[in-house]
């Protein structure tokens, strides 16, 4: 069975791994058209190795709502079981 990442996503995975391995803070934004595998790429990246990650998907709502939802995601990651 051919894995999803045996093809065109090897370069993207390698780029994310290089960014993650840096000693200083790094922030990656993944964007693109619908249904091209952005979430699958991130899930594969996070599942490789012992990585800590917070996944947040913004929605077409006012900025304050996205900020509040992002804050909840961060807090829930830091304090599991709170929400």
Overview of the structural elements:
It is a single chain. By secondary structure, this protein is mostly helical. The chain has two domains: 1-51, no CATH class; 52-83. It contains three helices and no strands. Helix 1 (10-21) crosses helix 2. The chain is globular and about 35 Å long.
Features:
2 domains; 83 residues; mainly alpha; 3 helices; single chain
Give a short overview.
With 83 residues, the protein is mainly α. It has helices spanning 10-21, 38-47, 63-78.
Write the layout of secondary structure elements.
Layout: H1 10-21, H2 38-47, H3 63-78
Helix pairs in contact: 1-2
Please state the average pLDDT score: 87
Catalogue the unreliable spans.
none
- The structural domain count equals 2
Class by SSE composition: mainly alpha
The helix fraction, in percent, is: 40-55%
Order of helices and strands: HHH
């Amino acid at each position: 069975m051919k894995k999803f990442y045996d093809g065109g996503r090897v370069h993207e995975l390698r780029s994310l791994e290089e960014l993650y391995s840096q000693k200083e803070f790094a922030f990656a934004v993944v964007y693109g058209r619908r249904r091209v595998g952005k979430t699958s790429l991130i899930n594969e990246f996070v599942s490789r190795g012992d990585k800590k990650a917070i996944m947040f998907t913004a929605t077409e709502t006012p900025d304050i709502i996205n900020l509040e939802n992002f804050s909840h995601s961060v807090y829930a990651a830091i304090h599991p079981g709170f929400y």
